[in-house]
């Protein structure tokens, strides 16, 4: 099963991941203001189950830029392609504020409403639960405090869908790109294990998509700054130039030069 841990910093995502795996794979932090900064993936057999956990940064923390957020969402999609069997939305008991509600809203915006059909809510710090707190309204009542119960519910949800998982056009495109890289690596490096090949393929695809995102974002930003070009046109320019870039910095530099050149050519006729 591929499980994605989602929630804001300090919710206990990494601790939950370690509890599920039974080992300290994900770094945990005592401060609520620090936490996982990059997506991290671990696979282990737990009670006869093969489980792949994707620990994510605080996607939905306030103050994160859209560029940073989109880059990490892209990394998450690369790690969990062709799609997760479940999203584990991690919330702290007793702290369901407007910001926690915003987490749910952001998940719907970042993935889709369909994603919530594959979601389970996991409350951490269960000893702080208010007895009057109603939790049945979240994700069809799929709310948990105990790991074994959580895994059983996840297995049942997957079985009810005949092993199906959440996917969308982006995840399908990512998986297709990964499979292409796997074939290339398998032929060029036949001594590598399947796990090593897929890991390397994921890394290459992730870098490619991140470069593309950097080009689009830089182009849109510069296009808006240089009003003559416009954000949409700048984004298109960045997208095209990023396709052949070998690194994030190269994508940014190429885009800057192209947008600046476009601005100069347009202003000559104004």
Mean pLDDT: 71
Helical stretch count? 8
Strand order of the largest sheet: 2-3-1-4-5-6
Tally of discrete structural domains = 2
Helix content: 40-55%
Organism: Oreochromis niloticus
Domain AIG1-type G: 1-206
GO molecular function, one term: GTP binding
InterPro entries: G_AIG1, GIMA/IAN/Toc, P-loop_NTPase
Fold topology:
Layout (H helix, E strand, L loop, with lengths): L1 E5 L6 H9 L18 E7 L2 E7 L10 H15 L5 E7 L5 H13 L8 E6 L18 E2 L2 H14 L8 H20 L5 H32 L5 H12 L5 H20 L3
Parallel strand pairs: 1-3, 1-4, 4-5, 5-6
Antiparallel strand pairs: 2-3
Family: Belongs to the TRAFAC class TrmE-Era-EngA-EngB-Septin-like GTPase superfamily. AIG1/Toc34/Toc159-like paraseptin GTPase family. IAN subfamily.
Keywords: GTP-binding, Membrane, Nucleotide-binding, Transmembrane, Transmembrane helix
Protein name: AIG1-type G domain-containing protein
Report on the structure:
The chain has helices spanning 13-21, 66-80, 98-110, 147-160, 169-188, 194-225, 231-242, 248-267, and strands spanning 2-6, 40-46, 49-55, 86-92, 119-124, 143-144. The protein has 270 residues and is α/β, with parallel strands linked by helices. α6 (194-225) runs parallel beside α8. It folds into two domains: 2-160, 3-Layer(aba) Sandwich (Rossmann fold); 169-267, no CATH class. The chain is built from eight helices and six strands. It has a six-stranded mixed sheet with strand order 2-3-1-4-5-6, sandwiched between helices. Pfam families: AIG1.
């Amino acid at each position: 099963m591929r499980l994605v841990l989602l929630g804001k910093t300090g919710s206990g995502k990494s601790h939950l991941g370690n509890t599920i795996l039974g080992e300290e794979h994900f770094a945990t932090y005592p401060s609520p203001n620090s936490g996982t900064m990059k997506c991290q993936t671990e696979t282990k057999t737990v009670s006869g189950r093969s489980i792949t956990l994707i620990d994510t940064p605080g996607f939905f923390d306030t103050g994160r830029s859209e560029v940073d957020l989109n880059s990490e969402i892209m990394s998450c999609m690369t790690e969990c392609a062709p799609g997760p069997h479940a999203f584990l939305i991690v919330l702290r008991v007793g702290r369901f504020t407007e910001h926690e509600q915003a987490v749910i809203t952001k998940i719907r915006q970042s993935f889709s409403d369909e994603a919530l059909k594959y979601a389970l809510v996991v409350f951490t710090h269960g000893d702080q639960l208010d007895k009057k707190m109603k939790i049945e309204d979240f994700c069809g009542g799929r709310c948990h405090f105990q790991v074994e119960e959580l895994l059983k519910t996840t297995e049942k949800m997957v079985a009810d869908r005949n092993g199906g998982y959440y996917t969308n056009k982006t995840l399908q495109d990512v998986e297709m790109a990964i499979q292409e890289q796997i074939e290339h690596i398998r032929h060029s490096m036949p001594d590598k294990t399947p796990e090593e090949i897929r890991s390397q393929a994921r890394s290459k695809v992730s870098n490619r998509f991140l470069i593309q995102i950097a080009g689009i974002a830089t182009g849109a930003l510069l296009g808006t700054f240089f009003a003559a070009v416009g954000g949409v046109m700048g984004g298109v320019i960045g997208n095209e130039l990023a396709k052949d870039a070998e690194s994030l910095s190269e994508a940014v530099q190429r885009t800057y030069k192209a947008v600046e050149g476009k601005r100069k050519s347009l202003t000559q006729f104004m």
